[in-house]
Amino acid sequence: MVSTTSTGARSAFEYAPAPESRAIVDIKPSYGLFVNGDFVDGHGRSFKTISPSTEEVLAEVAEADEADVDNAVKAARRAHSRVWGRMPGKERAKYLFRIARIIQERGRELAVLESIDNGKPIKETRDVDVPIAAAHFFYYAGWADKLEYAGYGTESLGVAGQVIPWNFPLLMLAWKIAPALACGNTVVLKPAETTPLTALLFAEICQQADLPAGVVNIITGAGETGRTLVSHPDVDKVAFTGSTEVGRAIAKAVAGTEKRVTLELGGKAANIVFDDAPLDQAVEGIVNGIFFNQGHVCCAGSRLLVQESVADDVLARLKRRMATLRVGDPLDKNTDVGAINSAEQLAKIRELSEIGEQEGAERWSAPCELPDHGFWFAPTIFTGVTQAHRIAREEIFGPVLSVLTFRTPAEAIEKANNTPYGLSAGVWTDKGSRILKMANALRAGVVWANTFNKFDPASPFGGYKESGYGREGGRHGLAAYLKGRSLR
Amino acid sequence: MRSSLEYRASDGQLYAGWVTTTATQPAGPGNDWADVAASESSLRRFLHGLPGVDQVGAEQRAAGLGTRSIKTSAKAFAIDLAISMVDLTTLEGQDTPGKVRALSAKAMHPDPADPTCPSVAAVCVYPDMVATAKQALGSSGVHVASVATAFPSGRAAMDVKLADTRDAVAAGADEVDMVIDRGAFLAGRHLQVFEEIAAVREASGPAHLKVILETGELQTYDNVRRASWLAMMAGAHFIKTSTGKVQPAATPPVTLVMLEAVRDYREQTGQMVGVKPAGGIRTSKDAIKYLVMVNEVAGPDWLDRDWFRFGASTLLNDLLMQRTRLTTGRYSGPDYFTLD
Would an 8 Å CB–CB cutoff place B67 in contact with chain A? Predict the structure, then answer.
C-alpha cells in the first residue's frame, strides 16, 4: 500500500517502562511487634527483610521470642474475655467494615508495599490481593451479627494463633483474621519471615480503625516463633497455611490438646483440558493457573492433563502465549511475572527442574531476559512427563508446569486423583454434563470449570488428603472459629 | 502444506473437517476450501468443529490486555500508528460532495499544523460518493473505501448487491466494505453467505474486500469465530466487526476473537487477513488498547495499516489532541482541531 508518510509500521511496539511510584509507601528502618494495640520492641534478635527483585534490604524486623509470644497471647486473652468476646456481633461488624474500608482507601499503599516485599507484580497486588483482602473483611463483617443463622453456634473459641505463608501475605492475613474476628475471637498472627511488612502495615490499620487493644496482635519471626505460638497452652485455635511438612509438625504438636486446628497445605492440582475445550481460553487458564503469582500458589494448576488428540495444538498455543509473558520489575504495571520470593525457594525450584530434566522430561522456557539482581526463574514447562516423575508428584511452588496427556475421561480422573494432595483442580470442556461428572469424581476441595484461580470470599476453600483440613471462606469458614459444631 | 510456527510439535490435523491448503495460492473461492465449501453440511461441520469460545474467559482476557500501561515513547508510537490506521468514515443520508471533500482533506493532512503527522489509511463513504472522494484524494495514497451490498442491512437481491459493488469499484474504490447476510447466517445457511462473499470478491476485481460481520447481530462469540472463518475462507482480505449502525459495535472481546481467528488462519494457510473494528472507538486510550491486543494476540505483523484498521470518525481528533499533548506537553482545546 502506498503511503505519503512513514507509518512506522512493523517497527516493534515496545512498551516503555511504566513503574508504579514507590513514594506512597514509607518503609521504616526497623519494626517491632504489634502487641496489645502498640508497637513494642521484641526481646529477641531481629532479622532483615529484603526485596526479592533487587535483594535490597528493606527493614529490620523483630524476631519474637517465647516471652514475646506469651505477652501477645496474654493480650489476646485479655481482649477476648474483657472486650471482644462479649461485644455484640453488630458492634464487631462495625470494626470489620471500618477495616475493610481502610484497606480500600490505602489500597495503593498496600499494593506497592506487597510488591516490594514479596516480588509479585503490582498488577496482581492491585487487582487481586488487595481487593480480595478487602472483600473478605466486608464479607465476614456481614456475618458478624448473623452467626445464629449460619448453623455453627455463636460462641467464639477464644484466642486464635495464626501462621501464614509468604505467597499472599496480606490476602492470607485477611482470610485468617476476618472470620476469626467476626466470630468474636482474638488473634495472634505471625506473618512469614520473608514478607512481614504488609502485616505490620495492617497493624497500623487496626490502630487507625480504633480496634480495641489486643484483638489483633502481629508477631514477626521465623519457624521457631511459629512453633512457640501454635504450641502455646493458652491458644484455643491454630490456623495454618503453608507447607505440608510444617502442617504435619503442627498437627503433631497440637495432638492430644483441646486446640482446634485448620490446615491449608500444599497442592499438585490437575488442570484437565478435554478435546472439546474452548482452547484459547483454556490456554489462558493454564497460564493463569501456573504462572499467576510466579506459581507460588498452593492451588496452582501445576499438572496440565491434556487430551492426547489436542495436545500438540494446545502446547503450540501455550508456548506462543508464554512468549508474550513479561517477566521483570514487579512495580512495572506491565509486568506479568515477578520475582521468586527468596533465594531458598529459587534453589528449590531449580533443584526440582534439574531433576525433571534428569528424569527425561523435555524442558522449555519462555524466551525472556531476566534481571541481573534478585531471584528470577523464567516461566517453564516440562513435556513428556509421566506420573512417575518427581515433577509430577512434588509441589514445586514455582513457575514450572508439568504436562501429561490422557486419552479418556476415566484416565483423566485416575491421573488427577493419583496424588497425595487434593486442594484444587480445573476442568476445561464445552460439555456441561462432563463438568458435573468430573467435579464429582475429582478429590479436590475446589474444582474450577473453564476458569482457574478464582477466589471469592463467599466460596469455601480447603483441601482433601495432604492438602489439609477445614475450610476457609464462605459460611463454612465460620465453622473453624465457633464452638457450635466439631469440624469435619 | 500448512505453514507452522517453529515450535509446532506435530503436523496432525487440528479440527474436524480440516483440509490441507497451499500457502502460495491466493485466497479465494473455489481453490483452498473447495472441500469444505462443497456442501452446506460440510461447511457446517467445519465451522462447528472450530474450538468454542468461552465468553467469560474471552472477556477476561480482553479486559486483562486493557490494563497494559502504554506511556511516553510507546504512546507516541501507538498514536501515530493508530492515526495511520484510521478509515475516516462518513456514512450518513446527509452526506454531500462538500462534506466528503472536507473529510478527504482531513484524511490527507489530519493535523495541518504538523507535517510529520501521518495521513489516515482511507476515507470510507457510500458508493455514490466514491468518485468525489477519489477526485479529492488524488494521488495522495489515501485509499477510498466504499461500503456496498445494500449496506447496512444487506437486505437486497444478489444482483443488486453485485451491481452496488461493481458501481463502487467502477467509480474508483480501492476497497469494498461489504456486509454479510446475517439473516442467512443465523438461519444456518452458511453456504449462501459463503457464496455471496465469494461473488462479491469476484465483483470487486482489484479492490480489497472487507467483510462486515455485524457482530452485534451475531451475538455470540462462537458465531463471531465461525463467521470470521467463513469470510476468510470465502476470500476476505479483511474481516470487520460492524457497520456502526448497530449497537454494540466493535468491542474488545469481539475483536480479540477475530484476531485469534486471523492468527489461526495464517498458521493454517500462510495467508494473512486483516481486522477492522468499527464503531464505538472514540478515544486514544481505547485505540491503544486495541493495538496492545493486536500486538499480543495476532502478533506484531498485524501492526500495519495493511492489516489493521479503525473504522471511526471522532477517534481521529482525540488521537490528534493526544499527539499534540505529547509533542508540546500541554492539552489544547477542541477548537484547535478541525471538525468536518
Answer: yes
Q: Which candidate from A3, A13, A316 shows the least CB-CB separation from B291? A: A13
Cβ of B258 under 8 Å from any chain A Cβ? no
CB contact under 8 A, A11 and B77: yes
Q: Is residue A34 helix, strand or coil?
A: strand
Measured between beta carbons, the chain B residues lying within 8 angstroms of A320 are 5, 7
Direct distance between the N- and C-terminal alpha carbons of chain A, in angstroms, rounded to an integer: 69
Q: Mutation test of the interface with chain A: which of B15, B48, B69, choosing the one with the most A Cβ atoms within 10 A? A: B69
Which grid coordinates are listed for B46? 467445519
Provide the edge-to-edge strand list for the sheet that holds A159-163.
Answer: A38-40, A33-35, A216-218, A186-190, A159-163, A237-241, A260-264, A468-469
Considering CB atoms only, which of A7, A10, A12 is closest to B118? A7
* C-alpha cell, A413: 480422573
Q: Check A11 against B5: CB less than 8 A apart.
A: no
DSSP string of B191-211?
Answer: HHHHHHHHHHHHHHTTSEEEE
Local confidence pLDDT in tens for the 488 residues of chain A: 333 333 444 468 999 999 999 999 999 999 999 999 999 999 989 999 999 999 999 999 999 999 999 999 999 999 999 999 999 999 999 999 999 999 999 999 999 999 999 999 999 999 999 999 999 999 999 999 999 999 999 999 999 999 999 999 999 999 999 999 999 999 999 999 999 999 999 999 999 999 999 999 999 999 999 999 999 999 999 999 999 999 999 999 999 999 999 999 999 999 999 999 999 999 999 999 999 999 999 999 999 999 999 999 999 999 999 999 999 999 999 999 999 999 999 999 999 999 999 999 999 999 999 999 999 999 999 999 999 999 999 999 999 999 999 999 999 999 999 999 999 999 999 999 999 999 999 999 999 999 999 999 999 999 999 999 999 999 999 999 999 855 44
Q: Rounded to 5 degrees, what angle do the CA atoms A85, A91, A94 make?
A: 125
- How far is C-alpha A93 from the geometric centre of its chain's CA atoms? 25
| Residue B101 in contact with partner chain A when CB distance is under 8 A | no
Q: Are A212 and A228 contacting, i.e. CB atoms less than 8 angstroms apart? A: no
The Cα A265–Cα A321 span in angstroms is 30
Question: Inter-chain contact B58–A280, Cβ cutoff 8 Å?
Answer: yes
What pTM does this model have? 0.93
Chain A residue at shortest CA distance from B108: A4
Question: Which domains can be identified in chain B, with CATH numbers?
Answer: 6-336 (3.20.20.70)
**Model ipTM?**
0.93
Nearest to B70 among A8, A15, A430 (CB): A15
> Residues of A near B (CB-CB distance < 8 A)?
1-18, 123, 127, 276-282, 284-285, 312-313, 315-316, 319-320, 324, 333-334, 364, 430, 450-451
Which strand (E) or helix (H) includes residue B177? strand B175-179
Return the half-sphere exposure (C-beta side, CA atoms, 13 A cut-off) of residue B262: 27
Between the alpha carbon of residue A179 and those of residues A11, A119, A468, A477, A482, the distances in Å are: 53, 27, 18, 7, 10
